[in-house]
Design brief:
Layout: E1 2-9, H1 13-24, E2 29-32, E3 44-46, E4 53-55, E5 60-61, H2 67-76, E6 80-82, E7 88-93, E8 96-98, H3 109-123, H4 145-152, H5 156-169, H6 179-189, E9 201-203, H7 207-216, E10 221-223, E11 228-234, E12 237-242, E13 247-255, E14 266-268, H8 273-281, E15 288-295, E16 301-305, E17 310-319, E18 322-329, H9 340-350, E19 355-361, H10 381-385, E20 396-398, H11 411-430
Length: about 425
């Protein structure tokens, strides 16, 4: 039997942060990761068959607005680099592709301004970062985002513009998405206008670079290819058993796995309250991220769509091999991430004249260690569960981007959650 003060289950950003902080506090830590790599829902690798290094999962950060990720970059002296500035646009709104830099016609600017002002005012009610999102007095916002937009009574073009952004940003259809969660990101950016210039900053050297620095800054015993099957409390100790029958014993556990996978682990005593409810209900994020290597694209492209299958698409790299486009669909029902012909048809909705040479993707929805993408609260889940998700279960502390008080669904949120879980466990170990 292997033993340590703490077992961390899951090697995404939350897991490696919790492991580092606990190790640096003098506690012995074993980190069990089911995959053959660290990083969780972030993953840097080469485009299949080509030389370009890509991010298959989480990519972008906003260091000027995200204090936890900014602190980690500063700690390790890691810089950022930016996605290319758009030169050609495509807005799939009002049953056509609009090619101008901004799709709202001047005649509708007053209505658009009214809608944005309402969004900003509602977002300003949120005490961002201060506590879990389900704060007193916000019940009226924990409704379907589609209903929220309908209540704005904006013209069709404005409504479709407003619906398209969260549909891509959260990887969920607006009827399945809490408006309160959407508005929390507006609060984080300080204004709804932050949405439209967001996806620029990336970790220099890839997300793997930051993960590697974090885990190297500790004495954590990392065990890859060790999926966990059960967590059982046995007296004052906890036993963690892997799929292969290996047993690990500890005084505390950090469960740093995505919400959608919680019911794959046998926890005794069983999860209850919000943990059990969310393990069954699941969160709604089911985005499909695709990469397409194309030829014939003369300028850097940026497109957002409401009626297209790809909801957001942009040029990310231009090389001698061609242009690498990255795109997001809301669900596998919209786009098969492994079907070149299907992706080609979707790309051609925006760019009919480009030649698609090759495609690449990772299906996070079918990945047994994620079973979905980044956090997207369903209507009603924020008020019901955001506080309970941060509570411990016996000597199990929870850590992942899904349950953060601030940027739930982002790398910053994972770091926040990992720090919080480590602080909780430290108190247990000195008591």
């Amino acid at each position: 039997m292997n033993s340590a003060d703490v077992i961390v289950i899951g090697g995404g950003f939350a897991g490696v942060i919790a492991a580092r902080d606990l190790s640096n506090a003098g506690h012995s830590v074993i980190l069990l990761e089911g995959r053959d790599r660290l990083g969780g829902r972030t993953w840097s690798r080469r485009f299949e068959g080509y030389s370009q290094q890509l991010e298959m999962g989480g990519t972008w950060i906003a260091p000027t607005k995200q204090k936890f990720v900014a602190a980690e970059l500063s700690r390790y002296g890691i810089g950022t680099h930016q996605s290319p500035a758009a030169e050609d646009f495509g807005w799939a709104i009002d049953d056509e592709i609009k090619r101008e830099p901004f799709p709202i016609p001047a005649t509708q600017w007053p209505d658009f301004e009214v809608a944005i002002s309402r969004i900003n005012a509602d977002a300003a009610r949120i005490r961002f970062y201060e506590e879990p999102l389900g704060q007193d007095g916000l019940d009226d916002l924990d409704i379907p985002f589609s209903t929220y937009v309908e209540d704005l009574k904006a013209p069709r073009i404005t409504s479709e513009f407003l619906l398209a952004w969260p549909t891509f940003y959260f990887g969920a259809y607006p009827q399945n998405l809490s408006a309160l969660h959407v508005l929390s990101w507006v609060a984080g950016f300080g204004s709804a206008s932050g949405w439209y210039t967001l996806l620029t900053d990336k970790v220099l050297g890839g997300t793997k670079n930051l993960v590697d620095h974090i885990i190297a800054d500790s004495q954590t015993d990392v065990r890859l290819d060790n999926p966990v099957q059960s967590i059982h409390a046995v007296g004052e100790r906890t036993q963690v058993t892997t799929r292969y029958g290996d047993v690990f014993e500890s005084r505390a556990v950090v469960m740093a796995t995505p919400i959608n996978t919680w019911d794959n682990i046998d926890v005794q005593p069983p999860l209850d309250g919000s943990h059990a409810a969310m393990a069954q209900e699941k969160q709604a994020g089911e985005s499909v991220k695709i990469w397409a290597l194309v030829r014939g694209l003369e300028r850097n492209f940026f497109g957002v769509g409401w009626h297209t299958r790809i909801k957001w698409m942009a040029t990310e790299y231009t090389t001698d091999e061609g242009s690498y486009l990255v795109g997001f669909a809301s669900a596998a029902a919209d786009l098969n991430p492994h079907d070149k012909d299907d992706i080609t048809r979707a790309v051609h909705e925006f760019l009919p004249n480009v030649e698609v040479i090759a495609v690449d993707s990772h299906d996070w929805n079918r990945d047994e260690f994620s079973e979905g993408t980044w956090m997207a609260y369903r209507p009603g889940q924020v008020m019901a569960h955001s506080h309970g998700l941060q509570e411990s279960h016996g000597r199990i502390a929870f850590a992942n981007s899904d349950i953060a008080s601030g940027w739930a669904g982002w790398i910053d949120g994972a770091i926040e959650s990992g720090i919080q879980a480590a602080e909780t466990v430290k108190k247990w170990l000195i008591s």
